[in-house]
Design goal:
Distance between the termini: 15 Å
Radius of gyration: 21 Å
Order of helices and strands: HHEEHEHEEEHHHEE
Number of strands: 8
Structural class: alpha+beta
Strand order of the largest sheet: 1-2-8-3
Strand content: 5-15%
Pfam families: Peptidase_A17
Organism: Trichonephila clavipes (Golden silk orbweaver)
InterPro entries: Retrotrans_Pao
Shape: elongated
Number of helices: 7
Protein name: Integrase catalytic domain-containing protein
Length: 205
């Protein structure tokens, strides 16, 4: 069991390491300061050469200077994977696997992001609590589904304006809009979004 301050201490340690080594490892320092999400690093580069250099700097800075073991590396470029594979301390994720990044699925081989939506049981009448609960189930930290989510939030805003209780049935017109929209939410799972960056996914322990 960890202490309550453990998340802060781990983040603070990474931040200090990045500041201390920013002149020697500029790419790794920048990625550590700006691309870490708790203990996951999601970063990339504009070219393969820069991506390889980023991997090398991260391995040098994290392992030799900070004592951190980085594992579960992945990239959409084989040359970057080969750079990772040289280090026996790193576990390589198979290139045909889908891996989860910030709650969404990423296929490194095709370089596509995909989503899954888990909704409540369908009903005839919904409440403000139901609408908010289902909106929260659509997890989109990168904003790729913003055109869909903004409609959901606008509808929720209308419900707030009506000063409804949490479990009070929503008005018929808004209920009809929500029912129609939620029936189409499963189409999100068929949608694939591609990113052009050379992404590397790292989990630290």
């Amino acid at each position: 069991m960890g202490t309550s301050c453990a998340p802060y201490l781990s983040t603070r340690t990474l931040t200090q390491l990045a500041f201390d080594e920013r002149e020697r490892y500029p790419l790794a320092s920048f990625a550590t300061l700006h691309h870490f999400y708790v203990d996951d690093l999601l970063s990339g580069a504009a070219t393969e050469k820069e991506a390889v250099e980023l991997v090398w700097q991260l391995k040098e800075m994290m392992k030799k200077k900070g004592g951190f073991n980085l594992r579960k590396w992945q990239s959409n470029r084989e040359i970057v994977i080969k750079e990772v594979a040289e280090n026996k301390d790193l576990k390589r994720v198979q290139n045909n696997e889908e891996i989860k990044i910030l709650g969404i699925q990423w296929n490194p081989k095709s370089d596509f992001f995909s989503f899954s939506v888990s909704l409540l049981e369908e009903r005839c009448i919904y409440s403000k609590r139901d609408v908010l609960s289902e909106i929260a189930r659509v997890f989109d930290p990168l904003g790729l589904l913003s055109p869909c989510i903004v409609f959901m939030k606008i509808l929720l805003q209308e419900l707030w304006k009506l000063n409804l209780e949490w479990d009070e049935p929503i008005p018929e017109d808004l209920n009809k809009q929500w029912t129609t929209f939620r029936k189409e939410l499963h189409l999100i799972e068929k949608n694939e979004n591609t990113e052009v960056c050379l992404a590397t996914f790292i989990h630290s322990t």
